[in-house]
Specification:
Distance between the termini: 23 Å
Membrane topology: Multi-pass membrane protein
Protein name: Amino acid ABC transporter permease
Structural class: mainly alpha
GO molecular function, one term: branched-chain amino acid transmembrane transporter activity
Order of helices and strands: HHHHHEHHHHEHHHHH
Low-confidence stretches: none
Subcellular location: Cell membrane
Organism: Calderihabitans maritimus
Number of helices: 14
Largest sheet: 2 strands, antiparallel
Mean pLDDT: 86
């Protein structure tokens, strides 16, 4: 009995050391990865490669925003393009009509997106599962039709943003390096918000709702309120990404900022990387965006849509052989080390 107790204590101590060592290794890797990303624009000068990194950061932000509602709370939304579009249109119209800096426009767009998310969430959160997903999909299409026929925001023709002097207050630059650092900063903010949510009481409530909504309600959790909180956080981050997109591309129309494909892409990077995890959307974006850009660059010129075929096949392979997302590989490796 005594030997068994000693053996159990030794095993617990060994597991604690393995976990501690694993966290130290992760911290070191994270430090060097962050340092490499900071100095990367001084090493990589080609605009195309910087463009790919900017898209990775942008899609990781969008996936991280979707992940808070879809990954942690289990509410699959197919209408997140609405918030992306609100962020893009709000900053653009404020700048064009009243010469308000896009930085302030971004904040106003985030507030508007939160208000719209609350208006959408109150009736739709009465629905569950695929009914909720269909409702968000329908609302996304309604916003698409409204903006396509709204003359003040350019309707279906869209809006060209005026070219302003290349200074930080105007959020316009002639080189890609400032955009790179802004997108990287937005990704850092998204990860920080996700981490804070994950480790707070809010995160536990979100996961409880995802695992069993009825049980969470029986335990006294106001499920509708916390789902709306998740939706509001998710909408604000999505609107932030929308403003960045408008300032980066300098042209927006309903097809580029409100299309259903934007909602699908945000969902896809999170699902491919691993839903309900901090790094899942980052890993998903780091794989899917280069895959999309390089296949489009090297195979898209033929006009046969071969790039889309290759892109689709690779996504299907990942979905079939790694349904838990790529973060599932890390989880399995950690479990094997603990067992060993």
């Amino acid at each position: 009995m005594k030997e068994s107790k000693i053996l159990s204590q030794e095993n617990a101590s060994l597991q604690t050391k393995i976990v501690s060592k694993g966290k130290t290794v992760q911290g070191v890797l994270l430090f060097f990865a962050s340092l490499a990303l900071v100095i990367l624009p001084y090493v990589v000068q080609q605009p195309f490669y910087l463009h790919v990194f900017i898209l990775i950061f942008l899609y990781a932000v969008m996936g991280g925003a979707w992940n808070i509602l879809g990954g942690y709370t289990g509410q699959v939304s197919l209408g997140h393009a609405v918030y992306f579009g609100i962020g893009a249109y709000a900053s653009t119209m404020l700048m064009m009509e009243w010469q308000i800096s896009p930085w302030l426009g971004m904040l106003i767009g985030m507030i508007l997106a939160v208000l719209v998310s609350l208006a959408i969430g109150y009736p739709t959160f009465r629905l569950k599962g695929h009914y909720f997903a269909i409702a968000t999909l329908a609302l996304g299409e309604i916003f698409m039709i409204i903006f396509s026929n709204w003359e003040w925001v350019g309707a279906a023709v869209g809006l060209y943003l005026p070219i302003l002097p290349s200074v930080w207050i105007n959020f316009q630059f002639t080189e890609k390096t400032p955009y790179y650092y802004i997108a990287l900063g937005m990704l850092g903010l998204t990860l920080l918000v996700t981490r804070l949510v994950e480790k707070s009481r809010l995160g536990y409530y979100f996961r409880a709702i995802k695992n069993d909504q009825d049980a969470a309600k029986a335990l006294g959790i106001n499920t509708t309120y916390y789902k709306m909180v998740a939706m509001a956080i998710s909408a604000a981050l999505m609107a932030m990404a929308g403003t960045f997109y408008a300032q980066y591309v300098l042209y927006i129309d309903p097809n580029s900022v409100l299309a259903m494909s934007i909602s699908i892409q945000a969902c896809l990077v999170a699902v491919m990387g691993g839903v309900g995890t901090l790094w899942g959307p980052v890993i998903g974006a780091a794989i899917l965006v280069p895959l999309s850009e390089f296949t489009r660059s090297y195979l898209g010129g033929s006009g046969s849509a071969l790039d889309l075929v290759v892109y689709g096949v690779l996504i299907m392979l990942i979905a079939v052989f790694q349904p838990a997302g790529l973060m599932g590989l890390f989880g399995r490796n950690q479990a094997r080390r603990k067992e060993a």
